[in-house]
Request: fold
Amino acid sequence: MFAPLFFVGKIGVESLGGRCDICKAFFIGSTQASMAGFESNHFINRELSWLEFNDRVLGEARDPSNPLLERLKFLGIVSLNLDEFFEVRVAGLKQQIESEITKRTPDGRMPSETFREVAARTRIMVASQYEVWRDDIRPALAAVGIYFSPVSELSQEDLSWIDEFYFDQVASVLTPLGIDPAHPFPDLLNKSLNVIVEIKVNHRGEQEHRLAIVQVPRILSRLVRLPREEGEQHFVFLEEVIFKHLEHLFPGTEILGHWCFRVTRNSELYIDEESAANLIKAVEKELFNRRKGAAVRLEIEASCPEAMRTKLMGYLGLSDTDVYGIDGPIDPIPLMAVCGGDHPPELKDEPFVAPVASALDGCSDIFKLLRERDVLLHHPYEKFSSVIEFIEKAADDPRVLAIKQTLYRSGSDQRIFNALARAARKGKQVTVVVELKARFDENNNIRSARKLEEEGVHVLYGMVGYKIHSKMWLVVRRDDDRIRRYVHLGTGNYNPTTARIYTDLGLLSAREELGEDVGSLFNLLTGICQFQPMKKLLVAPFSLFQKMLELVDAETANARKGLPARIIAKMNALVDRKMIEALYRASKAGVEVQLIVRGVCCLRPGVPGLSERIVVRSIVGRFLEHSRIFYFENGCQPKVYIGSADWMPRNFFNRIETVFPIEDGVLRDRIINEVVAGNLADNTKCRLLQADGNYIRPEIADGQRRIDCQRKFAHLSDDNNSDSTPQGIEGLASILMEARREPLQS
Reply:
């Protein structure tokens, strides 16, 4: 069965036949009513599950075993996560409610029900977040010489310095905006911090109350550092400096009150790709519109009077459910800046510098090495620069004929782009497929794509109707014996910055069948062809879902035959209903299922008669768990796949994704006995999902070792033992016996 023809022009891809029937059938099947035997209470709500994930991040800020500045960092990450959640997910819920969509989610909730529960859960989380700041982290920072003070508590000497700072650096960039019949409420930018000021003025002999807005300028640092002796850091917030000088912004008036607030807006891009004459210009236009999308959340000082809140709600078109009173600094994200700079070592995680992977250490000819064997890279525990260096060598190698690459989140590091541009200048055929719709990375991708085009690189901007989410590049080289393809396939983005903090796997290979598949997939993305069955690659939206379902069902069949049956899957999110139902069937048949799901998980583990044999773990630690790994026992002949796709409808049906087998036995054993076993052994940063949707820490018995798998992997890299089974971590079988179902009963 084939997909329709795709035509690729300068701006992207136009589908001549719409989505393939097989994709439509799978998508519809995965979202329609449940199969017999599976009820709505068998599924966890996606949005509430995400909030539980963010609460695990907040748990790291609460955890006194973490260094103090790392706790402060996690406090800011909670807000970063919530911002995106409201910009996209909550905005989507509000749109569903406004359009009167009546469809229930798999867990049985209507959009309005989900929205109300999300708001209630978020209020609890935000209250807890600021409690941690006020009662724990801020006093602890003061104890080590890092102070945050209101202007009202400063000395006269500090106040004089503040006055000078205001008139020298702040006053000239402020613009007060009055609100009256001639000046409507301003169209405030998304996530900008503002001050609403209530003023009494004398107008034609009568005292009148007026309102005005002052935007806290983004161009200035939110944290104002006071002059202090070396070793002490003392900060005030920029808005406090502005508060002190409001009388200079509104001379001749009486300031009755002032309150900070912040508006979050719908930031989803809405692009009609099939009718867009120029996709890149359409994306740029939507990026401009994003700044002023519909308001979805109002954060305001908890002390703001009810009447003022009501006025702001009216101006913004919001209701009480959209308003969040904040008892502390609105938007604590800038606090993360304090984590940088020179601090005592005990306040931060110990420095970690990843080594070169032992397989590549001392390697003088990467092409010769790959002709002999595959190389597996485990980031950030092994240098991502090895991937960049390979691209750079390919760019300079006169034997290399062509380079093809996908780019999803490119970041600001220009080394990869410089290598690709250099390769084009040297006359090589260089093709880059850039995904313009990578959320919140669109501007970086557009700038980078234009730079590549100027250098002669053939740039294509994704595919109509699908995001290009696969992580792959292909190098075509004329070796002594023949022309050969070299590939890199990974679970993470080609982004050197995030590669230092995301855990990902990458495979370097010269296997002929893998190279043929990658070449065919690039042809599909850039040319006129039909999707052909691949020899090794599993590709969404064409073959990935069906193959994953078949692998799960095969374990179910083996269990019914009395054969060893086990599934271990590590991913960022588990949402797809049909896949969850397949896992339930597997559990009921006797398959042992271990899931390592960092974020959203809609499956309920440990339900009697349904999912007793399923255990779900989430690991939130120093690094962001990002790798996707899929293990199937296969009757004692394990199959291991890694790739770019989570088990979500969007990954199966709305994106171009690649998942691929690890066929080198040494590398497969390394993934099983090191990476997977390490994750399953973790009892320090791990949380266990309960049937009610809550997460708990595993109990650690007296005398039992604490295992932090991320710390263990970092030490393994320091010891340059990356290609061997780690010392101190038991084999996979013993770990599974120890950590199987018992923790759910604790």
Observations:
- Residues 111-143 form the longest helix (33 residues).
- The radius of gyration is 28 Å.
- The chain has 20 helices and 29 strands.
